[in-house]
């Protein structure tokens, strides 16, 4: 990679402190993953069929300090209160709106049922306001069935809600931290029904690669065959590897899965550049390459300064004379400042380290780096996928 003429870069030497600061800024904004590190199979793949299940339910939160649902928008809360009281043997023949109090709120309750969960196991639950409650702080969730998409109840939830925010203030001035319309109940749900999953009868299983890649899939199969013997693992696709139980593990499916998940594999990933234009954050993989190109960086700054002069003549001393007239005149001054542009040439197939050094040399800020990479991709010089988030 050639940066500039012989009398340019070497002549414009920087101080060690300035160079260190520039390098620190660049590496804070460009995250370079370490190379040559292997990952365990359990960290890059999952066992097909062994997964979490989503649960959801509708419930009521009581005990709020007049921060619950109001009449407008909370009609179904009143209906839910009436239905709950009727189920408890309290038959009220009143308009549901008359029951609505601000210490009650309608909420949606969600949880994740882990694989192999057994009855009696406790789960953490998330509680979120459904209507227009201002805060769930200090509230208690009443008994709420949690259902799966098949409408079967797998857990029940109940307990005091913990919120992470607060609000304080008076006389029109208030301070709010985080939002209080949601919270959690640690260990607030109890599993009532287990999901049928019998793995003891398995004779084979499949690994699902989280980041589908043919090279990674082939390496996973090779690592398994090297450890257990030829023919145990077969790469089916870029995201699936089928594993057949060897004879030494007959009837020991748990031991086999644990042994497979503990194997190390070198993961292969595509060259990708992820850019967050709002924050100026850029993450680039180790395989990012550039074709031959030249980069120029410079900025033009135009400053316009306006000053107003006020002229106030004194009024004549004679009685009945004309009063002095105030005159305002504007004086504008325009200056143009342009930094000296620097041009660097990048040779073909440079590494990420060379790219970082080149961009650091010309003093590219994180936000300018976004524009440089976008232009390089448009020019066809960036040999990587570019993703904007």
Structure in words:
This protein is of the alpha+beta class and 389 residues long. It has three domains: 1-37 and 270-306 and 336-389, no CATH class; 39-49 and 198-265, 2-Layer Sandwich (Gyrase A, domain 2); 53-191, no CATH class. It has seven helices and 24 strands. The chain has helices at residues 16-29, 41-44, 75-87, 214-228, 253-261, 352-361, 366-378, and strands at residues 30-31, 39-40, 45-47, 53-62, 104-113, 122-129, 140-147, 153-160, 166-170, 173-177, 182-191, 204-209, 233-237, 240-244, 264-265, 272-276, 281-284, 289-290, 293-297, 300-311, 327-338, 342-346, 382-383, 385-388. The chain has a six-stranded antiparallel barrel. The protein has a four-stranded mixed beta sheet with strand order 1-17-16-24. The relative contact order is 0.14.
Q: Give the overall pLDDT as a whole number.
A: 78
State the helical fraction.
10-25%
- How would you characterize the largest beta sheet? 6 strands, antiparallel, barrel
Radius of gyration: 34 Å
Low-confidence stretches: 1-36
Number of separate strands:
24
Structure annotation, total helices = 7
Q: What is the percentage of strand-forming residues?
A: 35-45%
């Amino acid at each position: 990679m050639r940066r500039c003429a012989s009398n340019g870069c070497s002549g414009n030497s920087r101080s060690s402190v300035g160079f260190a600061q520039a390098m620190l800024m660049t590496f804070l904004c460009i995250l370079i993953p370490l190379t040559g590190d292997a990952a365990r199979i359990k960290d890059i793949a999952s066992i097909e069929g062994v997964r979490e299940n989503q649960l959801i339910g509708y419930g009521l939160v009581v005990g709020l300090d007049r921060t619950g649902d109001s009449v407008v928008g909370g009609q179904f809360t009143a209906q839910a209160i009436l239905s709950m009281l009727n189920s408890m043997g309290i038959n009220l023949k009143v308009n549901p709106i008359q029951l609505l109090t601000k210490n009650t709120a309608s909420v949606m309750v969600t949880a994740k049922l882990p694989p192999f969960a057994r009855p009696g196991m406790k789960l953490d639950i998330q509680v979120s306001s459904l209507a227009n409650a201002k805060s769930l702080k200090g509230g208690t969730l009443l008994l709420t069935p949690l259902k799966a998409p098949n409408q079967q109840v797998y857990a029940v939830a109940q307990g005091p809600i913990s919120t992470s925010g607060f609000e304080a203030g008076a006389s029109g001035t208030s301070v709010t931290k985080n939002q209080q319309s949601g919270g959690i109940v640690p260990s607030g749900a109890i599993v009532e029904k287990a999901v049928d999953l019998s793995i003891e009868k398995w004779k084979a299983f499949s690994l699902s690669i989280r980041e589908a890649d043919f090279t990674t899939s082939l390496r996973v199969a090779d690592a398994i065959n090297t450890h257990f013997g030829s023919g145990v693992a077969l790469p089916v696709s870029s995201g699936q590897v089928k594993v057949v139980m060897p004879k030494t593990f007959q009837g020991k499916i748990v031991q086999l899965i644990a042994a497979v998940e503990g194997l190390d594999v070198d993961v292969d990933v595509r060259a990708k550049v992820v850019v967050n234009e709002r924050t100026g954050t850029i993450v680039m993989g180790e395989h990012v390459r550039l074709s031959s190109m030249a980069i120029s960086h410079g900025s033009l700054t135009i400053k316009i300064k306006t000053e107003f002069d006020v002229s106030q003549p004194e009024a004549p001393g004679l009685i009945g004379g004309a009063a002095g007239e105030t005159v305002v005149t504007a004086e504008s001054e325009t200056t143009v400042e342009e930094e000296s542009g620097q041009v660097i040439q990048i040779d073909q197939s440079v590494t990420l380290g060379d790219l970082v050094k080149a961009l650091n040399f010309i003093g590219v800020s994180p936000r300018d780096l976004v524009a440089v990479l976008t232009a390089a991709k448009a020019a066809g010089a960036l040999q990587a996928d570019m993703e904007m988030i």
